[in-house]
Amino acid sequence: MSDWLTTDPWKFGAVGVSVLLGVMALIGLNRLFGLRSFSKLSGFDFAITVAFGSVLAGTVMAEDPPVVQGVAALFFLFALQAGIAFARTRWPWARELVNNKPRLVWHEGEFLSEQMKKAQITRSDIVAKMREANALRMDDVLAVVVETTGDISVLHKTGDDRDVDPAIMEGVIGWTG
Questions:
Q1: 115 and 87 share a domain?
Q2: What is the pTM assigned to this prediction?
């Protein structure tokens, strides 16, 4: 029972040093690899960001903190993300392989049930996002899009009857414009 509530002083210090070195490594690698490192521009980016946290937590909480291994793992995750980002900008097949496509799930007063099924979201998810986007009436909303990251965007009507710029909806599954 006492092992459950206490720890050796050296382990306490090791955790502190591991946290310090791990966070310093994250900051340094972020500076080295750039601002995109912690972005959520794609599902892959999100997965890598979660992996960063897992590696840091695993390193900090290990019995004998393997700080060098943790920093190496972080470096390779950053490098993998940079490599995938490079490939996505150069080759369409890489972009298609890694990126999800945004999906229209609500348009001008209609829930698009087939698209909702494919995106695995419910009517209540969409309505909650409308509220979150400060829509007071459904008539205020032009469209709702599930983005490549799983985030949900609510596009408000402008009130001046302008058409949506096709570039804004480029690649959105279900948009016919």
A1: no
A2: 0.72
